[in-house]
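For practice. Any example?
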Amino acid sequence: MAAVALGIEFSGTVYDYTDTVDGVNLPQVDAIVVLAGGRGRLAAAGDLWSRYRGSEHEPTLYFSGVGSQTTFKVIQSQLRSGVSAVLKPEQVVLENESTNTEENARLLAKNARTRGWKKVLLVTSRYHMKRARLIFGKVLETNLPADVVGIETLSVYQEPFEPGEWIWSPQGIRVTVGEYLKWLYYSRVWKP
């Protein structure tokens, strides 16, 4: 029983990550990369993109791991009406081949090389960001020349998977402990 309690306690360390972007001061980026799979991530990325709209350097909205049946119209239906009304297909990349975070990163490296991107803003849930940033950093470092693509990060809120909240929900415990086990593997064993 003590081992289970200790394991749950350590699982909370997946939230020990500080984003590079505060959500107010937005850096210039070539693409906003949102990892599909979590409730609200797509809409949050659309809202973020709308804040860049009209700026000198409007980023591409890159949806990663959206599934092979996903179309631009499907994405539009996930966004707030004000965003979907102004977003054009040419401002979007639908990456629909990847099925996990490592594949998300590999396909982003390929797209970044093809499109000449120098900096991206990675958007995912808070519980997922620590591992996602590790994987994306290592994959980009391995697949592209040094310092070619910089990664900024911004986590989106996804209840009840937040520090101090996840422990009170069976689903929060399951997701957080699962993410911690993945973090252990990727941070200690995995090589890109």
The longest strand covers residues 119-125. The two ends are 35 Å apart (CA to CA). Residues 27-157 form a domain with the Rossmann fold fold (CATH 3.40.50.620).
